[in-house]
Every structure is written in C-alpha cells, then in structure tokens.
Amino acid sequence: MLYFSVCDHRPFDAVLFHCTALIYRKHGDPAQVSMNLPNVGAKCVLVKILAAPINPSDINMIQGTYAILPDLPAVGGNEGVAQVLEVGSQVKALKPGDWVIPRDAGLGTWRTAAVLAEEDVISLPNDIPLLSAATLGVNPCTALRMLTDFEDLKPGDTVIQNAANSAVGQAVIQIAAAKGIQTINVVRDRPDFTTLIDRLKAMGASHVIKEETLRRPELKELFKSCPRPKLALNGVGGKSATELLRHVQVGGSIVTYGGMAKQPITVPVSALIFKNIKVQGFWVTQWKRNHSQDEGALRSMLDELCSLICQGKLTAPACSEVGLQDFGTALDKAMQPFTSAKQVLVM
C-alpha cells in the first residue's frame, strides 16, 4: 500500500494550499514522507489534479519491475488530467482553467496538486468527459498508433486481438469501428461471458470469442463472413499470442504491447518463412519520446482521439471512481483478475 504525504503551498493571495500525495520511498515498501510544493517558476504551471487512473504500469513502477523507473522517493501514477490554476510569467501556451495531461510517463499523478514545467504537459479540451480525459494519454493512444502504424488498414479489413476487454482492447474496438474496420475480439471465459459479449458489441465489436475458440475448427466458419486479419494485437503473450499468429493473413503483422500471461511468445517457423508474418512490439512511452521534438505528432493524435470522443465514438473504459483516501482498496482491486472496471483516483 501507499501512504499520504500532506504538502502546504501559498500560491497567491496568501491562501494556504493543501496537497496530498501518494509517495513510495523504495520499491515494494512505500512509506509516508513529507514534501513541499515549490514556487511556480517562470516556465511552470500550478495544477490541480482532477482524476488519475491506476494502470498496470503504475503498479509495476512501484514494484520496481517496469522498463523505466523514477528516482526515489517518487509520486505514484503516470496518467491523469489536471486543471491549470496558475501560470508562470513566461508560460505562453497555457492559461488558468485549461485541462492538461502528462506528455511522458513518470510525472507522478497520484496527488491533488503539482507544480510542473509547461513542457511536461499538453492541453486537452475541457469540455470532454472527465474520465475520458483522465484515461486518454496511454491506452487510446496505444490503440490508435497500433491501428495506424503497422498495416495500411482499409474499411472492411479485419483486426484480431486478445485481451479485448482491457482498456486498450476497448479503445481498439471503438477506434476500429469508427474507421470501418472489423474486429475479432478474444477474451478469457468467465461467468458473465454473455454480458461481456453484449457490452463489447455495443462498443462496436464485430465478433467476440473465447480463447479456446481460437484452437477450434469452427473459427473457419467466421472467416467465411470476414477476411483473415491483416493485423493481430497481443496484450497477453504465451499460447494466446501463438494462436493469434495462426490466423493472420500472409504478409500481415502481430504487434505485442503487453504480456499479462508473463509467458514468452512462440513463433512457428512456418509463420515466418511461408506467411512472412512480421512480429513487432509497441510501447507508447517510446513513441512519445521518439516524437518529443515533433509537437505536431502528439497534438494531431490527441486531436483525433478527442474528436472521436466529442462524436460519441470513443468512451472511457468502465471505471470505478475512488477517493484518494481509499487508494489502498483501489490498488487491491486493480490487481485482481477479471477486473471489470478501471480504478480511477478522483481528487
């Protein structure tokens, strides 16, 4: 579990500003520490964090197992939306009232307020739903990039994915549907499977099947009504990824963005030699860093996603809003299997 840190700051008019943060001093053993917000520098902004989700990568960072780790002590959380309260004298692109999200991972969003460099955040429209804004920077970006950057997908083409009920999976379903792309969505069996089918199809899923169906002959019947996938998206690994590979058309791609099964992917030699399947990986944090000098790339991506949100074509995943004081319960729920709702800390 994490502990509270209470901070005081007097940003203007001598009004005492109270800040609560969730901080960990070492990996696997968070502890309570004290910290103060710095003054708002010329190129900085004071923000109030409005909402911040708990993602698997956040937990991995706390455990010390993620690919990038912040210096300790650190504030938890990599994603969220904040409102600008005050801007420094040299801040040009932001003003009080603007909504912003982090440009990169490691910013520390599990707190009620922060003083951040203007260059570390990017603005969003403040008329989109709060939960859509809070969960926009990681999973929808991942989904859009994977649907855009690996295969030239046209309306009527097919994408197959496992972990279809994950936040990335739900974004893939909706963005693909908006583009006229069919999706075959693979999920683990569960007691409420029929309910899950209905929910994913309401989002725009073309087909929803169980993991074991990937290995059965009846899947051939499905391909009589839709083309074999050009693109497979893998968030699980292990046997599930290998089964996805079997159904990708000649010359297609499988892109791995997660490994929930914590098992390696076995690629049949025939998939490489005879089908020329491209096996690749994607990490949205690296994409953002590769494009850190290209202001237009991130801006264009966020604008496209926000446009889909405004059109009602992209909604946030199912979320449970939790007060910051109940973070322990939220973390426990976030680590449970078959989690049906993303835990979001609401300040």
From TrEMBL:
One of its GO terms (cellular component) is mitochondrion. Coiled coil: none annotated. Pfam families: ADH_N, ADH_zinc_N. Residues 28-345 form the Enoyl reductase (ER) domain. The keyword Mitochondrion applies. GO terms for biological process: fatty acid biosynthetic process. This is Enoyl-[acyl-carrier-protein] reductase, mitochondrial. It comes from Esox lucius (Northern pike). The gene is MECR.
